[in-house]
Amino acid sequence: MSVIGDYFIVFWGFLLLGLMAIGGFFMFRKFLKQLPKEDGKSLMDWERYYVDQTKHMWGEKEKLFLEELVSPVPELFRDVARQKIASKIGEVALQKEMDIISEDIIIEGYIIATPKRDHKFLRKKLKQKNIDLTPYEPFFNMSKENYNDNWQDNYKR
């Protein structure tokens, strides 16, 4: 066998191992989200709970607004992002005892649900829609680490 054939086999082996490692990483992350926490429910259970509890609160206009906001997310991850963001929006709406999901609640929940690095896309999209960002600056100024687990406590301040 030639030297090029040997290199091809080695390259192909590393490529397959790399792809399997990437797939395994994402499968493991999903597995971790399914593990029950102290309250007996997993993160995914809570996400489904908040979405189910607030389904009736969403209007068509609000659904389209959320779709527009998640449009910069790559299509492969968009469903997961939409689920996570919609659940956080629902959680905020329930915390505030709202009857409907408003544009303000969507923006607030979106900011809380997304990491700081994604906020530039949200800012750009909101500026395109001529939405004033001033009321939302406190949420933008928080870092993901500050409101990941105990965002309610930080929110009340």
In short:
InterPro entries: YneK. By secondary structure, the protein is mostly helical.
Task: Describe the fold and architecture.
- It is a single chain.
- The protein is mainly alpha-helical and 157 residues long.
- The chain folds into two domains: 1-34; 37-156, no CATH class.
- It is built from nine helices and no strands.
- The protein has helices spanning 3-34, 43-54, 60-70, 75-95, 103-113, 119-128, 137-141, 144-147, 151-156.
- The longest helix has 32 residues, at 3-34.
- The chain is elongated, with a radius of gyration of 20 Å.
- The N and C termini lie far apart (70 Å).
Write out key terms for the chains shown.
single chain, 157 residues, mainly alpha, 2 domains, 9 helices, 71% helix, 0% strand
List the helices and strands and how they pair.
Elements: H1 3-34, H2 43-54, H3 60-70, H4 75-95, H5 103-113, H6 119-128, H7 137-141, H8 144-147, H9 151-156
